[in-house]
Specification:
The chain is mainly beta and 135 residues long. It has one domain: Jelly Rolls. It contains 1 helix and 9 strands; from the N terminus they run αβββββββββ. The longest helix has 16 residues. The protein is extended, with a radius of gyration of 22 Å.
Length: 135
C-alpha cells in the first residue's frame, strides 16, 4: 500500500513537471495617432524619461481639467472611463482597452461605470517634463 502511494505521488510530480507552458502575447494597442486622430510627430527626445502610474478613480469621480505635453497611453485595468475634451469631444474606454491620450489639449477623465476605475498609464517624454498640466 505504501509503495503504491509513493508511486502515485512520484507519477503526479513527473506529470506536473512535464507540463509545458508557452508564453502568449496579445497586442493591446498599436497606433500612429492619439484617440482624436492626431498623428504622432517624429519624436525627438534627447533625454527620454519613462514613467508608469497607477491611477484609481472612484465611482462618479472626475479628474481635473488638464493636458499632457508628452506621449502617454492608459490601460484600463478595471472599470469604465470616459474622457472629455474642453470642446466636448469624448471617448469611452472599458476594462482591457487602451487609450492613446491626446497631447496638448485640455481634457478630463470621469468614471462613468458602476465600479472604481483602475488605470495603468505609461508616459514617455523629455526628462523633467511634467506628466500633466492643470488648467
Amino acid at each position: 500500500m505504501k509503495i503504491r502511494t509513493v508511486f502515485i505521488t512520484l507519477l503526479s510530480i513527473l506529470l506536473i513537471a512535464n507540463v509545458s507552458y508557452s508564453a502568449q502575447k496579445e497586442v493591446l494597442l498599436k497606433t500612429t495617432s492619439t484617440w482624436d486622430n492626431v498623428k504622432y510627430n517624429r519624436l525627438k527626445i534627447k533625454n527620454p524619461e519613462v514613467t508608469v502610474l497607477k491611477i484609481n478613480i472612484g465611482i462618479n469621480e472626475a479628474l481635473s481639467l488638464h493636458k499632457h505635453d508628452l506621449v502617454n497611453v492608459a490601460y484600463v485595468k478595471k472599470g469604465t472611463l470616459t474622457v472629455y475634451t474642453d470642446k466636448n469631444e469624448h471617448i469611452t474606454v472599458k476594462e482591457g482597452e487602451c487609450l492613446p491620450e491626446i497631447i496638448g489639449k485640455y481634457h478630463y477623465g470621469k468614471n462613468t461605470g458602476d465600479e472604481p476605475v483602475e488605470l495603468i498609464v505609461f508616459y514617455i517624454g523629455e526628462c523633467g517634463t511634467p506628466l500633466s498640466v492643470n488648467k
